[in-house]
Amino acid sequence: MRIASWNVNSIRARAERVTAWLERNDVDVLLVQETKTKDETFPYLPFQAAGYEVAHHGLNQWNGVAICSRVGLTDVAHSFPGQPGWGEGDAMEARAIGATCAGLRLWSVYVPNGRTLEDPHYTYKLRWLDALREAAAGWAESGAPVGLLGDWNVAPRDEDVWDIAVFEGSTHVSAAERAAFDAFADAGYREVTREHLPQVYTYWDYQRLRFPKNEGMRIDFAWATAALADRVRAVAVDREERKGKGASDHVPVVLDVE
Fold first, then answer.
1. Are 111 and 150 a contacting pair, CB within 8 Å?
2. Count of CB atoms within 10 A of residue 130's CB?
3. Nearest CA-CA partner of 172 in 192, 150, 156
4. How far apart are CA 209 and CA 239, in angstroms?
5. What is the Cα–Cα distance from 153 to 156, expressed in whole angstroms?
6. Burial label, 93 (beta-carbon count in 10 A; 0-12, 13-18, 19+)
7. 3-class secondary-structure state, position 253
8. Average pLDDT per run of 10 along the chain, which is 258 residues long?
9. Does the global pTM surpass 0.85?
10. What are the CA-CA distances from residue 254 to residues 18, 239, 241 (Å)?
11. pLDDT for position 177
């Protein structure tokens, strides 16, 4: 079984590219982040034509998450217990969607960016991660195969950015964010991408020729309970998908699961 996670940075702009990639790579389940569209404007037809069911959660032109599966898609959840909201009225954002696919409980997560260390969005990001960890700890207690995949907007180690000096005093590398990310290990999860790929980037900004210079970041990860992590046989990052016209600034992260 092949599971992939990909921040596509607008699904409507890249639907054909994404479905072509799915078919070329024989992917069973794709967890998508940053679809940037409402449910009613998601491009369902290309995915259905390729044999995928789609569960999408999008409220406006921001955020948005989806799960596309050709091996079953049941028990869809559009938020996790305790998920905090943002802004006026503490409104819930479309940042998490879960579903059961071929017996695996999979979550596509798009963690808040944080913006700056002084911004209220940074506090929201830490609250969001803490709430997800608490919910995830409960799921892990059952012993079920659970995976939390997506764009975590955290670079947990210095080598996960091209130059740590550039990020001094910035989000993504702060001690509090890294601690919130690492806490998932204490909640019963293993981060399986680093187990198979010790050093790799998954994101390159569009600005300042970051991709040609390979000035990237590793911010896309997969936390898994032992029941799933023990079945992961290989992990790959498709760097080629950052190339060419119309590419997302992230690349797919692919797990081969026994």
1. yes
2. 14
3. 156
4. 15
5. 9
6. buried
7. strand
8. 98 98 98 98 98 97 98 98 94 97 98 98 98 98 98 98 97 98 98 97 97 98 98 98 96 98
9. yes
10. 14, 11, 12
11. 98
* pLDDT at position 99: 98
pLDDT number for residue 161: 98
What six digits make up the tokens of 193? 């991408």
Residue 149: Cβ-neighbour burial (10 angstroms; 0-12, 13-18, 19+) = buried
Return the bridge partners of 32, or none.
6, 66
The predicted pLDDT at position 89 comes to 87
User: What whole-number distance in Å separates Cα of residue 220 and Cα of residue 154?
Assistant: 8
Strand partners, 6: 32
Pick from 131, 134, 174, 127: nearest CA to 154: 174
Q: Which domains does the chain have, with CATH numbers?
A: 2-257 (3.60.10.10)
| 224 in Cβ contact with 192 (< 8 Å) | yes
Give CA–CA dist 48/84, Å, rounded. 32
| Token pair for 207 | 């600005």
Residue in 219, 173, 214 with CA at minimum distance from that of residue 193? 219
Please tell me the predicted confidence (pLDDT) of residue 250. 98
Side chain identity at residue 8, one-letter code: V
Are the beta carbons of 126 and 176 closer than 8 angstroms? yes
The single-letter code of the amino acid at 238 is D
